[in-house]
Amino acid sequence: MPTPKVLVASDLDRTLIYSSAALALTMPDAHAPRLLCVEVHENKPLSYMTETAAALLTELGGVAHFVPTTTRTRKQYQRINLPGPAPEYAICANGGHLLVDGVSDLDWHRSVQERLASECAPLDEVQEHLEKAADPHWLRKHRVAEDLFVYLVVERELLPERWVKDLAGWAESRGWTVSLQGRKIYAVPGPLTKSAAVREVARRTGAPLTLAAGDSLLDADLLLAADRGWRPGHGELAEADWTAAAITALPERGVAAGERILREFLGAGAGRLPA
Length: 275
Hints:
Layout: E1 6-10, E2 18-19, E3 35-41, E4 44-50, H1 51-63, E5 64-68, H2 74-77, E6 89-92, E7 97-100, E8 103-104, H3 106-119, H4 123-133, E9 139-145, E10 149-154, H5 161-172, E11 176-181, E12 184-189, H6 194-205, E13 210-213, H7 220-225, E14 228-231, H8 236-239, E15 247-249, H9 255-269
Parallel strand pairs: 1-5, 1-13, 13-14, 14-15
Antiparallel strand pairs: 2-4, 3-4, 6-7, 7-8, 9-10, 10-12, 11-12
């Protein structure tokens, strides 16, 4: 019998792939890494990883069940062109959609909807509150994602710090979670988690070990559900100095962190020591 593959579930944005604003290329220009564009939006390059990271991800895809695990909608995820084998499984909408060979598993999605309906305040209530509470002075976009959660695009420098904390308190009492990631404020139902979908993939694949990485508050449950996890030196979790047993806080920031995370995945999951 072949040895079961390890499951590697990783957040994408600001964990494995990076916008130009998030690259954190602090070294001298002549020493900057070569970059590979992995996402184009409206005919413009949007997201990158280093060429070394691309090679590591290709290697990882050959020895593990690599599962992209993102808060992005399905449409936003499908813009990304990752190197390596096409993942059999992918998790979108923070666990709301489990893709199997690119197609949403309808039974999984139905089970998620039933849980949300029974365990937290309805989407309409949260959407209405955000529409009333957000200030047009700093609000740029208001979006509903997959009829599951809401997010705002804001001018970060104009956003009052207290506003997000107040929103988080209001949302928590209704069973929702708030996360500030760059210029986006997410309001997500508490039961809508990446970890639940990852556990389902682990069950289906029979993976003996689950590895995970992520940078935001919405990734905390994913990291806690894994056997081993990593977070980069940037993002919500780093800012809060968040850690837990079996979680490694890496010092690298920006696109260099994505490369380091892939080395760690290979070292832990494929018996290869990180270079």
